[in-house]
Design brief:
Elements lengths: L2 H12 L3 H20 L4 E3 L3 E8 L2 E4 L6 E4 L2 E8 L1 H9 L1
Antiparallel strand pairs: 1-2, 2-5, 3-4
Helix pairs in contact: 1-2
Length: about 90
């Protein structure tokens, strides 16, 4: 499903325009990004948790020159599905 299909389905289910669905989707993504950037965990009942994990700096080797490269620390978003959500996926 691409973004256009998602927005069309969302608009249909909410009974609103695609523009309104797009605005809602954009606001939701901005809110998620802001909260994750602060280090918050976002819990969505019966779906799962979104959180960030700090990946420490580490050294990797360049595949071209085989020289060591220091990779800076970064925040990596992760999703942990709720057990009921995982179970529903296996049933489908």
């Amino acid at each position: 499903m691409d973004n256009a299909e998602f927005l069309s389905l969302l608009a249909s289910r909410l009974g609103c325009s695609i523009e309104s669905a797009s605005s809602l989707s954009d606001s939701f993504i901005q809110m998620l990004t802001h909260e994750l950037d602060k280090g918050s965990t976002i819990s969505i009942p019966d779906f799962g948790n979104l959180h960030v994990v700090k990946e420490d700096e580490h050294v990797v080797k360049s595949p071209v020159s085989n020289e060591p490269i220091l990779m800076p620390p970064k925040l990596v978003p992760q999703f942990t599905p709720h057990p009921e959500f995982k179970e529903k996926l296996h049933i489908i």
